[in-house]
Amino acid sequence: MKTFSTRIASMAVIITAFLVFYPSAASATTVTVTVGNNCLCFSPDPVMIQPGDTVHWTWSSSGHSSTSGPPCSANGMWDSGILNQGATFDHTFNSVGSFPYHCTPHCSFGMTGTVIVSSPSATPTATATHTPTATATATHTPTATPAATHTPTATATATHTPTATSTPTATSTPTATPTPCTGRCSPTPRPRPTPPRPTPGAAIAAVADFKGDGHPALVIRNAGTRQTAIWYLNNNVLTGVAPGPTLAASWTVRGLLDFSHDSYPDYVVFNPVTNETAIWYLSGLTSISSTSGPTVPSGWALAATADFSRDGNAAYVLYEASTRQTEIWFLNNNVFVGGSAAPTLPADWSLVGIADFNGDGHSDYALLNSTTGQTAIWYLSGATLIGAAYGPTVPAGWTFVATADFNGDLKPDYLLYNSARRQTAIWYMNNHVFVNAAFGPTLPAGWSLVGE
Fold this sequence. Notes:
With 452 residues, this protein is mainly β.
């Protein structure tokens, strides 16, 4: 644990620099694990904590134990004995490592868990040396080039619209409602196959309110036909499906915003081969016209769209992979107005969402560490980084793909996706703090989240 003077020094760095941030040296945390909550399981599992933290098991049903060691093989580190509903048991972990445990009567039925104790890791740091000024040279700061001569047009919608499949049962899918954690632990669905890794600038899924009812909808894509479809949601529940425009070859959706100010979100599409951008204006789900946007310079990619100037006009967020630099291009409809250098991402971190997490009216960056699954929020004022905080850690097998307010509490939530199962899930957030979780719909075979 850091000393008091170290924490004071860290706070001074944050206040004076605004560009470097560190994890807080919090006191020991207690993490609750529910035993046998309508299943032969421990929830959440695994649990990720740090040395000095305590795991607090609470029995939801009778006849179970929390016994350390591999399945059906106790190693003597701890053993609650067989307890009944309402009982509790605590164990404090003081050393780093991975600690398997099991229920003695039900270990052969797969009632096992793991406590992972790891040392605190540094929060991603945006440094002034890697963040170019707004007047960066042409080799590092993209400039708007003439509009593309070839604008893709929307083709007729497909005759086959995907329908939602049933949600898998709890025995083969991650727990839909992991117990909210406190401190540094993170909710983790299970089981845990090898996770897909997001590609910077291409991992943000397309989510928007197409009906104007305050409920975000998912845009999904058929890889074979390039057909898009809209899945209307009420919170995490699928309420309807409708076909959307078909994408032209080599083009992909990189954002959904109302560019024409007609109250309907429009498709922002990007061609990574030619670096052209275009706007597809929609009336509901009908493509009514299209126009070219500014062309992105070589080496850069269109990563996302958002309103950074708070004037109702959309902006492009660009990303340069070799330098990890981001840049904001301010637009008036499809016309480039000006650019501003934005924070440089640390190594292994990628931009996966943009939303106002702290309620100050400014769009913020949501980041994901592709190696550890750790998330973080970078709080912005326009294009300027002013602060940062950790979010929950995404479990293996899942990818953090977008942000949106799914439950209508005016706070952005995380959208997660498991590509192996085509399963979606929502993590409900309060700023950077995990509150609860629920499954979303499962995608049909051949379809994926746009941008995923």
